[in-house]
From TrEMBL:
Keyword terms: Glycosyltransferase, Membrane, Transferase, Transmembrane, Transmembrane helix
One function term, GO molecular function aspect: glycosyltransferase activity
Family stated for the protein in its record: Belongs to the MptA/B family.
Positions of transmembrane segments: 68-85, 105-127, 148-167, 236-258, 265-288, 323-353, 373-393, 405-425, 431-453, 465-487, 499-516, 528-546
Protein name (record): Polyprenol phosphomannose-dependent alpha 1,6 mannosyltransferase MptB
Membrane topology: Multi-pass membrane protein
A GO CC annotation given for this chain: membrane
Pfam families: MptA_B_family
InterPro entries membership: MptA/B-like
Primary localization: membrane
Amino acid sequence: MATLPFVTPDRKSANHSVVRRSIDLGRRALGLDSPTPDHSVAKLHGDEAEAPGLNANETRQLRYVRRMGTTGAVLMAIGALGFGAQPVHQNPTQGLRILGLPARLGAAGLTLTMTGTVTVVLAWLLLGRFAIGRARDGGVARRLSRSQLDRTLLLWILPLSVAPPMFSQDVYSYLAQSEIAHRGLDPYELGPRPALGLDHVLTNSVPNIWQSTPAPYGPLFLWMGRGISSIAGDNIVAGVWLHRVLALGGVALIVWALPRLARRCGVASVSALWLGAANPLLLFHLVAGVHNEALMLGLMLAGLELAMRAIENTDPLRGWNLALLAAGCAVITMSSTIKIPSLIALGFVWMALTRRWGGTFRALVKATALTGVVALTVTLIVAFASGLGFGWVNTLGTANAVRSWMSLPTSLGIFTGFGGVLLGLGDHTTAVLSITRPIAALTAAFIAVRMLIAVYTGRLHPMGALGVALGAIVLLFPVVQPWYLLWAVTPLAAWATRPAFRIPTIAFSCVVSVILMPTGAKVEPFQIVEAAIATILVCGTVILVTRKILPWRAEAGAPTAPADRDAYAQSS
């Protein structure tokens, strides 16, 4: 595992003297010997060597996988015309002969979306065979090229980017809260119903549970949303499109930053992009679902890349390097003014910078001053320039009204309360939650502090420590939505390579991606059963028909001989 200054293996020899000085300074400052890996998370990371491209047979299989995923995305987009998270008013497909057909097909329309969802997930799993690139039987490990992965990702994103919203109705809350800000009212004091009125076209599309709650999002997001409202007005379709443009911009930043961060950690860029950017959770919830996590994660990762580029540079941290570091800290702070959890990334930049400057108390003070001044300045600029102030600090717990089964402390409280009912002791769920949630918060804080110390002592790369800390925060959060998992998955995709991380992440991503309904709301049980049976039959038939042309078995895509090293140049 790499130690600070966090250089990848191919740069170690060129920076040997810098590494030596850093280690010596750390020893003198902390009274420690050379830092050793934090074995509690060391099993998650391993460097990935470069690999040759795919051979002719694998390239042909990749084309089939790409078409399979694109077909699934198109089916999802068609089914969403009837079973997406459509607005209550201004539904552009309602009453149309062709575009309105999926809404009139009943369970058949839902089957289109569910079949498309499972097809995309299966195509993503098959794509993983070419992204991970493991050698078998003594052969050569091969991976698809970055351009091949980019083309695949683009083809899968395009149908979802023009489809109606799916899996969540949050975008309608964004529109209503942005309109409140556009009218000069305080979205941190008033919800859509009291601010816009019960009969307003934007209020009616907001789920009932959120119609009277203030906005929990940061001022930068609502500032941008206010600009969208000034353009789209009460036009829901135009507003959704403009918010999706923001989400796609965030996805573009993720695709830009993730491979660069992966290379700093000694991880293959295509494997990081496959797990982080091509993940069905990102496609379904950030692109199709139009969640502002896309912009939050994109800015956070872009800021981390800028900051780590400056910190890992062998040149002194002054002049252009210092400006690059400040820019990275500023971009991370901007991401936190969309949603606050990304601010923790600045803490790991702070620790990495402290270690780069020698790990002494003076270095800690200097790093604290630099990151603190940048963060405070950016936050003040956004708060006052937007005119929204700091009211969002008081609304961060708005989502706690939901009891999420994916949250460990919430699930424990619910199951305990249910057990009390069965035993005739009464429903004590609320009382139990008042105990489990604070304990979980303290546990998450402890893990985050431990990861910060691991970066300070050089035991972990900042990307790995950040991913572990965010993973703990997500799992121990009072409310966990499926797309929250991407808070941890995207940074860890650039660092964690071991099966201990990848296998559970792949399994969980697949399961969560296929169990959520595309409407973002309740669907009749009989429709779900009918659609599920039809989806199983269709996808089973596809697997049977394509068993000889797609790499369903490990042997189908396995490397065969070292002579294939140059095959990619001839076949792609």
